[in-house]
Amino acid sequence: MTTLDEITEQMRERFGEASGLDATFKFDFGDAGLIFIDAASVPHVISHEDSDADCTISISLDDFREMASGELSPTTAFMMGKLKVDGSMSIAMKLADVL
Fold first, then answer.
1. Is 37 among the domain residues?
2. How many domains does the chain fold into?
3. 10 Å Cβ neighbour count for 88?
4. Distance, CA of 15 to chain centre
5. What is the layout of strands, in order, in the sheet containing 83-87?
6. Which pairs from 18-21 meet CB under 8 Å and 24+ separation?
7. pTM exceeds 0.70
8. Would the pLDDT of 27 be above 90?
């Protein structure tokens, strides 16, 4: 089972130092914690700090793992209410290219 720290490290690898997304994101995993991604700065800053973000994605850690492994599509997760987006939907859609 993938831990929050392992997912954070995978995010660092996927986003790199300059993804071109030019926005801030927060993945809120509820009680399991969160990951904040500042993709507006170069190099990107990825941490567990709870900061304001252009787009916040709320999803359980288990559902995120399924999404990351390809077992659950982001669209299906959204339609089923497993994934919630607060903020810019267009910014959230840009994440699909990175994830």
1. yes
2. 1
3. 15
4. 10
5. 45-47, 34-38, 24-28, 55-59, 83-87
6. 18/42, 18/43, 18/44, 19/44, 19/98, 21/91, 21/94, 21/95, 21/98
7. yes
8. yes
